[in-house]
Amino acid sequence: MKITYDKKVDAMYIYLTSKKKKITDTRELDDGWIADYAGDELVGIEILDASKVLGSKFGLKSSRSAAVLHKIR
Asked: What's the pTM value of the predicted model, to 2 decimals?
């Protein structure tokens, strides 16, 4: 598992597999929580506005206050 955080867009991505796989489906789980699938396998989760959602628990601070635009594949 690998976790990345992009401060510019205030988004966190959790890679659930170390192997790069082609994403075949993307589903919004909840407002700002997006799951990526390769077939039936869940391969990653993106958290939009991560500093608001996870905040100080993870030491995240955003330099932006506007909502993040996200293109669903």
From this structure: 0.74
